[in-house]
Specification:
This protein is an alpha/beta fold. Helix content is 41%, strand content 18%. The strands form four sheets. A five-stranded mixed β-sheet has the order 9-8-10-6-11. A four-stranded mixed β-sheet has the order 2-4-14-5, with helices on both faces. α1 packs across α3 and α13 runs antiparallel to α14. It starts with a helix and ends with a helix.
């Protein structure tokens, strides 16, 4: 899946994204299960229709991988996927435009209330774990680790020009260039809550819903710092340097082990998709797709650079899905 991962992470540079499920990827467990069913004389029912998805750019690589693999099983089902950010995904669902909303944070009370007002009930499903990765330029030879207090000093607006020497007097007396996900991003919301404590972010920071813009920004400036989902660091580790984060128990580097264990705190978090309950009941393809997504998220999330959930979590979600039929 290495070549696909690159496709997933670079495709967003083209702007509005739509992914067709008619791709011909092979080799997932579900494909093998279908082949086994066919060999046993069981017919795999072919479905038709369209499933609309929007939301988190962090979740996008996982969902795009799921869509591509699903297309090999159900080529008659088209699944366009947008990446307008977690907030944008919920706005689209509130407007009745989508069946699924990808999210890198839990749904907010006001979003839930807006859905309820429109008569839309949704169910949350977890897909994988992520560790928000703080990165600097590859040529930055002074930053190895930062504390949460250091991050606050760097990212919170206080009316001053932020310099590396403000964090450590031994570091360069150079202005820090900051790159952050945009305000519609669930990653921004999570960082805002956990690190900034809802204080205003530095006004001069470059904000973008496109994580690839952030990657290129940090890559192009020796004094830059940014943050985004772990998969975007994993895909660009040859051109970026990850910073270890000290959440109070020592500096920890994000990787599969530390993210899954929660050791990479407080920047480890689950990733979600929210499904419109009525779509599961009214559209057989939606039920089938969500079931496929849950069954394959463990493998595909790791293929694109995230961390799988414990098997029990996926089993719990499958049981939850069955109650919606």
């Amino acid at each position: 899946m290495k070549s696909f991962k690159k496709l997933a992470l670079t495709a967003m540079m083209t702007g509005v994204l739509a992914v067709s499920a008619a791709c011909g990827a092979q080799g997932t467990d579900s494909n093998k299960n279908n082949e086994q069913k066919e060999q046993a004389g069981e017919e795999v029912k072919q479905l038709q229709g369209e499933i609309k998805i929007d939301g988190s750019s962090t979740v996008f690589p996982i969902m795009e991988a799921i869509v591509e693999e699903y297309g090999a099983v159900q080529p008659g089902v088209k699944v366009p996927v947008g990446s307008s950010g977690t907030g944008g995904g919920f706005k689209a669902m509130i407007a009745g435009e989508t069946d699924l909303a990808n999210a890198s944070r839990p749904i907010k009370d006001e979003e839930k209330a807006a859905l309820t007002e429109k008569g839309i009930d949704v169910t949350e499903f977890k897909l994988a774990y992520d560790g928000i990765s703080v990165v600097v330029n590859k040529d930055n030879n002074w930053v190895e680790s930062l504390t949460i207090d250091d991050l606050k000093k760097i990212w919170i607006e206080d009316g001053t020009v932020k310099k590396w020497s403000d964090i450590n007097p031994k570091w360069p007396n150079e202005e820090i260039k900051l790159y952050s996900p945009g305000a519609d991003s669930g990653t921004f919301d999570y960082f805002d809550e956990v690190v900034l404590a809802e204080a205003p972010i530095v006004q001069k920071a470059t904000l973008s819903e496109d994580d690839n813009v952030l990657v290129q920004g940090v890559k192009g400036d020796k004094n830059a710092i940014g943050y985004f989902g772990y998969a975007y660091y994993a895909e660009n580790k040859d051109v970026l340097k990850v910073v270890k984060i000290d959440g109070g128990k020592g500096a920890v580097e994000p990787n599969n082990k530390t993210i899954e264990s929660g050791e990479y705190a407080p920047l480890s978090r689950p990733l979600f998709t929210y499904v419109k309950n009525s779509a599961v009941k009214d559209n057989e393809a939606v039920y089938d797709f969500v079931k496929f997504a849950i069954e394959n998220s463990a493998t595909l999330s790791e293929d694109v650079g995230y961390v799988k959930l414990p098997e029990a979590e996926y089993k719990k979600d499958l049981e939850k899905l069955e109650t919606l039929k």
